[in-house]
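Format notes (please read before filing issues)

Several people have asked whether sequences and structure tokens are stored in separate files. They are not. Every record keeps both together, in the order shown below: the sequence lines, then the token lines. Line labels are part of the format and must not be stripped during preprocessing.
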Amino acid sequence: MNLADITPLVLTWNEAPNLERTLAALDWASQILVIDSGSTDGTLEMLAANTRVRVLHRKFDSFASQCNFGLKEVGTPWVLSLDADYVLTPELAGELASLEPAADVSGFSAAFDYWILGRPLSASLYPPRTVLYRRDQARYVDDGHCHKATLQGRVEALRARIAHDDRKPLSRWLASQDKYALLEAEKLLAVDPASLRMQDRLRRTGWAAVPATLIYTLLVKGTLLDGWRGWYYTLQRVLAEIVLALRLLEARLAVKK
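Then the structure lines:
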């Protein structure tokens, strides 16, 4: 695949702690499209200093809407969709250049190495994502607090991995969790429980996912072996489940009034 046929698409909102590393790993790209939703922390100044970056501004309503807006502005046949805390490895960039996708392949997914405080964990709960796809065959949909690309054709897996290396302060992470929990609770309560994956069925109970996440992350995934960084990540995941459990219980109790 010719790298000139790929446009990285990045969403930003106050991502100054991450942008330098993310952009440096995209030095092969002739143009990078950024959709910004009102940054005030120096993000826009950092983007303006990079001549390969084109910035468009859009008020945030949902992640899927931001991405779909960006897709309409991409001029290349392939899109590399990235969060602002995704850092491509040289191995992955090399793999992109060597790809020869079949006609029925619409996209490629990637797995992630999760970094905490500047070092990678041995494992995490972060799932693979479809990150590279044909622009004219993709559309984003919201899925709880997440968003995902829906493609018309087959999706293959990339061998190389992406680093998820978010260095924004903990206060920013904490402030986001309640917003995410509200969206997740709405999704979990709106669907037939039989259609949910096992982990989402546990979450829907309003309590079971809290101890399950602690045990699974520490012992099954093995973050206990990562020392205090492993505990830091595990406690983040447990706290996120606690906030979600509270929002689920709140919604159920409100219905019963």
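For reference, the curators noted about this record: The radius of gyration is 19 Å. The first strand starts at residue 6 and ends at 12.
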